[in-house]
Amino acid sequence: MTQRRFIPGLKDVARTAGVSMTTVSRYLNADLVLPPDTAQRVDTAIRQLGYVPNPHARSLGRGRSDTIGLVIPTIANPFFALLAAAVEEAAEAKGLGVLLNATSNNASRELQHVARMRRNQVSGLLFVSAHYHTPELVQALNDTRGLVLIDEDIPGVHSAKVLYDNYRGGWLAGEHFVEHGHRRIAFIGGPSELASTRDRFAGLRDAAAQADAEVTFEMYGAYAAAHGEDAARALLSLGRPPTAVFVSSGEIMIGLLDALHRAGVAVPERLSLIVFDDAGPLHLFDPPLTAIRQPIAELGARAVELMLAASHGDPAETEVRLPVELVKRASVAPPASV
Amino acid sequence: MTQRRFIPGLKDVARTAGVSMTTVSRYLNADLVLPPDTAQRVDTAIRQLGYVPNPHARSLGRGRSDTIGLVIPTIANPFFALLAAAVEEAAEAKGLGVLLNATSNNASRELQHVARMRRNQVSGLLFVSAHYHTPELVQALNDTRGLVLIDEDIPGVHSAKVLYDNYRGGWLAGEHFVEHGHRRIAFIGGPSELASTRDRFAGLRDAAAQADAEVTFEMYGAYAAAHGEDAARALLSLGRPPTAVFVSSGEIMIGLLDALHRAGVAVPERLSLIVFDDAGPLHLFDPPLTAIRQPIAELGARAVELMLAASHGDPAETEVRLPVELVKRASVAPPASV
DNA sequence: GTGAAAGCGCTAACAA
DNA sequence: TTGTTAGCGCTTTCAC
C-alpha cells in the first residue's frame, strides 16, 4: 500500500548509461553532440527508467524558468481568451509554459504579479492592462526583463510593445458611417485616460470631419456591459440623438445592444452600430454586427516573439502596430432622416 | 551600465533582521508565530531589501509547487475560457498559480502535459478532454496525484470528478420541445463515444418518449462549427425533417445557425433550437437562443476545492454532478405544421 | 568528449 | 523558540 515510488533522477540515468551527470545534462540541453553509441545508451536509460527532468531544479539551477507569464484583466472576455489561446500556442511551439494571471484590472494585483514574475519565476512577461497606471507599476514594469506590453500602451514604460492601430480603427468606422450618409455620430469609449481610447476617438473624429460630419456625443467608462447600458440610456434621452454609434469594445457593445433591444430601438434602421473588436460570433447577432477586426492571433504570436528577443538580452524597445480592418455586416445603414 | 543587480536572498533578510534563515523561512510560511518585535524587524528587513522569495528554490525544496495545471482542449472556446477564469479565480484565492495547457484534444499532447505535471511541476492537475481515450492516458492519469477530471468523465480513471448532469440537460430540452408540440426531434451531438454525449441523448430521448414524440435524427461529430454546418446540410436534405433540434454544444450550434441563416431557414418558425451550453451572449443572437445553462463558475471552484482535498492526501474518489437549467429565450416555438 | 564538484535559494530535520 | 546543517535535482564552470 504505502509503496514508495522510486523517482529516477539525472544521476540514475547517468549511472545506468555509464556516463556522468554532466554528460547527460548537456546532452539533454543540446549543449553537446554525443557519439551515436553514447547517445543511444543515454536514450535507452532515460526510457527504461522513465526519467522526467525536474523543472524546478532546472529553473533553480539556471536562474530562469521555461515559463512565460501572461497578465490580463480577465480570461472570461473573448478578446483576452483568444489572445491567451494565441499566446499559449506560440509558447507551446517554443517549449514554454504559460502561467496565467487575471487581474480584473486591479492595480495591486498587477503589481503583485509583476513582482513575483520579476524575480525568477518566468523568463518573460506579457502584460495587458486597461486602466490608469500608477508610478509604482510603471517602475516595476521598467525593472522587468523580458517584458512585452500588449494591446494597451503604458506611458513611461520602456519595453517591447505590440499594439493595434487604434487611430486607423476609428477612422475606418467614421469613414464607413460617413459613406452611408451619417452626420451625427456618437462615440462610446472605454476609459478616457487610455491612449487606445483617445486614438480611436481621434480617428473617428477626423474621418467625420473630412465629410462635414461630426461626433456629437462622447461617453467614457469601463470595459463592461454596464457601461454600454448606461450609454444606451444616455443616447436615447438625447433631444437630437446621433444616427450612428461607434462602440469601443465588445463588452460595452453587449450592454448597449441589450439595452437597445429592450427599448425597441431598431438597428440599423434607427441607429447604426460599429464595434471595435471582432471577437465572438458577431455575425450571428441580431443584427449581424459590423466591426473593426483586430488580428488577435498575430498579436499573441508577435508578443511571444518579441518576448524571446527581449529576454535574450536584446534590449529592443520595439513597438509593433498591427493593422485593423473593417468587417462589413448589417449593423450600418443610411440614417432614417436622409 | 553593466550594473549587476544585487538580489537579496533569505540569508540577507536573516542577517539584516539579526535572526537565522530558518526563522525567517518559517515566519514567511506561517509555520511560526514570532514575538512582535522580531516580526517587526523581519518585516522591515524584507521591505528594505525588497526581498521576493524565489519560487523555484521553494518548490525544489518542498517537492511541489504552488501551481496547479489546467489542461483543456482550447481556451478559445467561451466555455473553456469561462472555466479557466473560474479556476484562475479560485486558485488565486488559495495563493496558487495556474499553468495553462491547451491540447486541441490531441492525445499525445495530453499525455505529454500530464507527464510533465506529474513529476513535480504542479500540486494538482485539472483535466478536461473530450475525445476517445487511450489506455496510456488512463494509466498516466491514474498515476497522477491531485487529479480532478472536469466536465467529461473518462472511464477507468479513478479520481475526483466534477461533471454536469447531462442526462437532465437532455431531458429538459426534450421536455421543452414536447411542451411546444414537437413530435420529431433531432439530436446533433458531439463525439458519440463520450458519456456526456450519450447521456444528453438519453435524456432527450426519454423525455420525448414520455409524450409520444421521438428523436428521428441523430448525428455525431467533433465539437466544431464545421460539424454544425454539416448537420444543417443533412437536416435540410431530409424528406420529412424534424421540427426541433437539440444541439450538444455552442461550437456546433454556431456552425449550424450560420448554415441555417444562409439557407434562409426561419428559426424558430420552421425549426426550433436548444443548445447545451450557455456560454457567450446567446441572448443577443438572432433569434435569442434557448439554452441549457451549466454553472461554469461553480464547476471551476469545486474542481479547485476537490483538487486541494485530493492533493492533501485525501484519496477521495468523489464525483460531483452539478445541476443544469433551462434558460428560455426565443428559439423554440410550436412546429409550423401543428 | 567527459567528469568532479560547487553552487542555485530555500525547506526541514535535528539540535541546542 | 531559534540556529545548524544537510539536502532538493539540476546546471555549469573548470580540469582532465
Question: Key features?
Answer:
homodimer, 338 residues, alpha/beta, six-stranded parallel sheet, 12 helices, 17% strand, elongated, DNA-binding
Structure description:
Two copies of one chain form a homodimer. Chain A has helices spanning 10-17, 21-28, 36-49, 55-62, 78-93, 107-121, 135-142, 166-179, 195-209, 225-236, 250-262, 296-311, and strands spanning 67-72, 97-102, 124-127, 147-150, 160-164, 184-189, 214-220, 244-247, 272-276, 290-293, 319-322, 325-327. Chain A is α/β, with parallel strands linked by helices. In chain A, the strands form two sheets. Chain A has a six-stranded parallel beta sheet, sandwiched between helices. Chain A has a six-stranded mixed beta sheet with strand order 7-6-8-9-10-12, sandwiched between helices. In chain A, helix 1 (10-17) crosses helix 3, helix 5 (78-93) packs across helix 12 and helix 6 (107-121) packs parallel to helix 7 (135-142). The first copy, chain A, starts with 9 loop residues before the first helix and ends in an 11-residue tail after the last strand. The relative contact order of chain A is 0.12. Chains A and B meet through helix 4, helix 5, strand 2, helix 6 and helix 11 of A and helix 4, helix 5, strand 2, helix 6 and helix 11 of B. Strand 2 (97-102) of chain A pairs antiparallel with strand 2 (97-102) of chain B, so a sheet runs across the interface. Chain A binds a DNA duplex (16 and 16 nucleotides) through residues 9-11, 19-23, 25-26, 29, 31-35, 38, 53-54, 56-63, 120. Chains A, B: Keywords: DNA-binding, Transcription, Transcription regulation. Chains A, B: This is LacI family transcriptional regulator. Chains A, B: Residues 8-62 form the HTH lacI-type domain.
